[in-house]
Amino acid sequence: xxxxxxxxxxxxxxxxxxxxxxxxxxxxxxxxxxxxxxxxxxxxxxxxxxxxxxxxxxxxxxxxxxxxxxxxxxxxxxxxxxxxxxxxxxxxxxxxxxxxxxxxxxxxxxxxxxxxxxxxxxxxxxxxxxxxxxxxxxxxxxxxxxxxxxxxxxxxxxxxxxxxxxxxxxxxxxxxxxxxxxxxxxxxxxxxxxxxxxxxxxxxxxxxxxxxxxxxxxxxxxxxxxxxxxxxxxxxxxxxxxxxxxxxxxxxxxx
Length: 255
Hints:
By secondary structure, this protein is α+β, with helices and mostly antiparallel strands. It has two domains: 3-153, Jelly Rolls; 161-246, Arc Repressor Mutant, subunit A. Helix content is 32%, strand content 23%. The chain has helices spanning 123-132, 134-160, 163-178, 194-201, 205-217, 234-240, and strands at 12-14, 47-51, 56-58, 66-72, 75-80, 86-92, 97-98, 101-102, 105-106, 109-112, 116-122, 187-189, 221-224, 228-231. The protein is globular, with a radius of gyration of 19 Å. The strands form four sheets. It has a five-stranded antiparallel sheet. A four-stranded antiparallel sheet has the order 3-10-5-6. A hairpin with a 2-residue loop joins strand 8 (101-102) and strand 9.
């Protein structure tokens, strides 16, 4: 069994050729720097892996053998206390990278929010590509810088904002992400549950639900079921989040 076939905690390998030329994630992923025929260098080192909803790709502390790029669906990354409490540190979407590690072990756990697909890169082979294609290494350095800046954003979000400001900021950042995918940035199709939003923002589920209800009653948003939120008053949402000065994230997404 080669490195690309090494088992991970969750997911299964998808057989067949890599659909790089039609991949929705390619424009924003590390492979975006490989133009034209250079993309063929991935053929022998990358596999696609499907992870069912609620299944983990890897656990914190597992030996780190691969990097992963989300190509479809959404993932969340989190740290877990010994008593089961968890702090979600980010939600990842197509084009986002996960699997950065510390002392050759994963620094967090990763779980699929819904059915998700990732491209799996052996770390050793990826390091070889960095030497061959310096633009890929430059992409990784930018990614690491974005992750560090995003961690500072979340520290401020958790430590210095009220529950209303946290929820409004979270929705604002989700809107910011939607602008990269299509023109209807005010309709948010959330992949995460109220519990997962609470675990990301350091709130209780009751507080999340109560705050969203307040935003709905005030006419700032409209909800359609548990996953869909329409932002009706963008200016009001910005003010609820703390105004312009609080809404300049270093990255295009929370986490």
